[in-house]
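note to self — DONT lose this again. spent like an hour looking for the file last time. sequence + predicted structure for the chain T wanted, 308 res
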Amino acid sequence: MSKNLKEILVILGNGFDIALGMKSSFRDFYDGEFWPFKRENKTSRYRTASGLDRFLNINMRENWYDLENLLAQYALSISLKNEATIEADKKCFVELKKALINFVDNAQRNMPNLISLNKAVRFLKAICEFRIPVIYSFNYTGLNEIASLLGISDFTYTPVHGTVQTKNIVVGIEDNVKILPDYDFLKKVSEPTYKSTSLFYDLMRAKEVVIFGHSLGENDFHFFRRFFQFHSDEMNSDPKNKCKITIFTANSKSRMEVLSNLRAMNDGRNNQLFAQNDLQFIRMAENDSLALDEFELWMKNRVSCKSV
């Protein structure tokens, strides 16, 4: 029996862009030419007034993968109001966003040629050929342009946090972080371009969810917590609630990180999540036979579903 395509949901994270070959991680941002606060000399425009650039310079070295959590840590560390520092931090944050836009735009423009054997390319083609209509991307890259390079037309998706093509991206911390009101400018909802999506409701009515390259990290818990709590609760163990969940990770390490984030969302009930649903992890960057078989079997099943 074929599924209603509207009950199938695809979610893309930065791991998808990286799997395509883009140098688009926060580590690449920090290490590369677009990082705006590397200058350590006294003439740095923020060095004497802003604490934010200094904090990021120090802490990004060890926590390059989690820029938004570092922004939250910085805001939480501020207990006394200082007008000069607040204004300098606002300018610093604006500069950070501009630099991030330029960095991601450059990463997409310099993306290596897409080859048909690339697993991420094959994945994108598969979901397009299957005509899955509900696709959300947490990336700042323009997925339409990437699809066009692959000869895919009429491609539609929802960018959750904007794209660099529109020069409007949403970066920052979550609304429930308790900080000085003067630092609310760091919150995502403060962005004029922040907008509603149907992701929450699409997740709750989905019968199949495919997640590629998203860590399901703390900054996005509000999107996913209710879904994973529901599907990990014994009270909802009726077979009609069973969901097919496929999570593509880079390797075994990232699989463990996702499991840890799931555990934080579902109160440590991952065993119940496995028991009540068809949950599968597929490791994309590992070349052992099991990892390769996981991906090839998923691709084969996509073709089988299409022919039903």
